[in-house]
């Protein structure tokens, strides 16, 4: 793809492919902001060896077929070598064959269910061993082992629920009371019968793998049913500050989420990053775990390209693998063997302020293990230290 | 107004998935891009991997799975491990699809085929399906052997009973009791006693002896 004779110090065009509209647009919008903030920072600091990064932004509208089409056009028409994008697994699976066909590079800033490796993808969100295990440990230890599983009807919830059920079953006296799925565009009416069932079954906690706009409907239905989060909280891997801002802070208060990043992380680098984000995009943006992954992966790309001098996969990949970066969550590293990222699992309880109070936090990064079938609950190395 | 809600209860993770991290895998493949892709993906899955090329005549102890590059130059080789009593699960990695290669794949008793160039995607499914097929076929073979033995035993008991009925003038129930009493006192199975009776009867009838002699011989043997 190198265009001979062209000077090396021209701008670097990169594809940016998130959903600014559709059911997952809230997260998609924040991932776009994270990407653009990092691009601004790189460019303000002189670009990549003097070369400016220019984003070519496309809106996939939460539609997997559109993701595939736009990825193809970004590569074939816009001549980008690298794409930053995708949220739901269905969108990544749609883009993967396109990326592999052209031998280009995709950065995927989202937690997902694991069991994937591509030579053409860098995964910067959490694998199940970096969020599910810690959440199961915390919830069963503090609330009990009778769990009610609710998810959106697609692959990520199926696999996450399998892992959660497997983990919870290792607790004596545990029971999976139900496993139920709602459409991706579910409204509050879809949760009516589920709430009635929950009233009858009285689980110790609810595990939600509902994603996108319907997350707000679930938590609102729960609040309307009059349940008490202190006694029977909802635990989630996907309910971030973004979803909380949609449902209303008071509705979210008392529920738990496991994630490598929360806005409330008490560090200078995080506070500074948030301040820069607010200066750039105003106070309306809602940074969250996927925003943070989108932010740091762009910086890791820029750093690797400073080493390789090229954004072609064959040249930049060796520089990316094993590279480290001081991200808002802590110092992260791309694992050379599986292309996933070493991250810091945390557990947060949503407060009435719209922020998470971090109640557990890993002191060391946890290695990604995307092909782990059977997670074990008793493993004390997976247990997160309590926060003062 | 509620859309269909799926209930997916009682899903348990299968043994073939749970055992993945315990598997000892031998990769008989050249040290090239495909060979590395294969071993690296097996390591990501969490298997314990050893790689050899050219194919070793005997495998290390305790190998559960063999990935074998079925290349034209190895078609003439004898793979003794594939014919062993309890062979490892074999998965063939193929670059060609012509009858010579397919014939070798069949001779090896491969339970799955992985096309080259090898991709990381598809390996886990092929591995799990091959392991499942392998253990099902082994269990079925074991069951068939057991059933065959049982069937032979039943046939033998029926024959022994009819010999006893003829020679001792007893009915079927009494004939069976005779066999069972013998089995209990000698601490062997009724099938063993029945086989001894059938054998003895064959030997004794070789000399074309009279029916009376034969029963006499038995009576003698039977006296406790």
In short:
The complex is a heterodimer of chains A (388) and B (224). With 388 residues, chain A is of the alpha/beta class. Chain A contains twelve helices and 15 strands.
Please tell me about this protein's structure.
The complex is a heterodimer of chains A (388) and B (224). Chain A is of the alpha/beta class. In chain A, 38% of the residues lie in helices and 19% in strands. Chain A contains 12 helices and 15 strands. In chain A, strands 7-6-8-9-10-14-15 form a 7-stranded mixed β-sheet, sandwiched between helices. Chain A is globular. Chain B is α/β, with parallel strands linked by helices. In chain B, β4 (89-94), α3 (99-107) and β5 (112-115) form a beta-alpha-beta unit. In chain B, α4 (123-168) packs across α5 (172-186) and α5 (172-186) packs across α6 (190-206). Chain B is elongated, with a radius of gyration of 28 Å. Classes of the chains: A alpha/beta (388), B alpha/beta (224). At the A-B interface, α5, β7 and α6 of A face α2 of B.
